[in-house]
Design goal:
The chain has 5 helices and 11 strands. Strand 8 and strand 9 form a beta hairpin. The protein starts with 5 loop residues before the first helix and ends in an 18-residue tail after the last helix.
Length: 195
């Protein structure tokens, strides 16, 4: 049985329950990489020049430690996650975005996508996760890189991330086209949008 203080309970959004595990939820097949020389990461769309980073170059980018709580739309929350990853600013300082860029579409393996306002993508708390609680991400949790946007429901933290597309206008990604909310604030319970 979980024993959390009142302070911890203040960190759990409405409709959520605490877990000490790290549930695995996804749609489709889990990608297993055998030849990392074929893996790359792209920043494209409304940028002056597209950026492509190889796996080798991505893995030597400066990393930071991050600590956060995560909240899944399926009602579980996990507190005090410790991550190692690359700050969004570290990658974005390598590109010049066009002034009309206001949104991003995260592109993951298998055609999976999710949308974010640019402001949320660039937040200091958002990063490209490589390790969770001291261990490399497993394939089921997004190896080799997943987006982490802890202030939104966890589906916005795309697993198996391969690219970021900068856009002028918001548009729905995979889950949003299939009934999930366009934004996903756990404190407002923005889970689904069937309008």
């Amino acid at each position: 049985m979980l024993d959390h203080t009142t302070k911890d309970k203040d960190r759990v959004p409405p409709g959520q329950r605490l877990t000490e595990g790290f549930p695995v939820l996804h749609y489709g097949e889990v990608p297993y990489y055998r030849d990392m020389s074929k893996w790359d990461f792209r920043v494209f769309g409304l940028v002056e020049e597209e950026l492509t980073i190889s796996y080798k170059d991505f893995m030597v980018l400066p990393r930071q430690a991050f600590k956060n709580d995560i909240h899944c739309v399926t009602t579980w929350s996990k507190l005090d996650n410790v991550w190692e990853g690359v700050a969004v600013s570290t990658v974005m300082e390598k590109v010049r975005r066009k002034p009309e860029a206001r949104y991003v579409m995260l592109h993951a393996e298998g055609g999976w996508t999710t949308n974010l306002p640019l402001e949320d993508f660039l937040a200091e708390t958002s990063f490209f996760g490589i390790k969770h609680n001291g261990e490399l991400l497993t394939p089921e949790h997004g190896y080799p890189v997943r987006m982490v946007v802890p202030h939104l429901y966890f589906w916005k933290s795309a697993k198996w991330l391969r690219g970021v597309e900068l856009m002028a206008h918001d548009k729905p990604g995979f889950w949003e086209r299939n009934g999930y909310h366009m934004y996903g604030d756990p404190w407002r319970e923005e889970r689904y949008d069937f309008d």
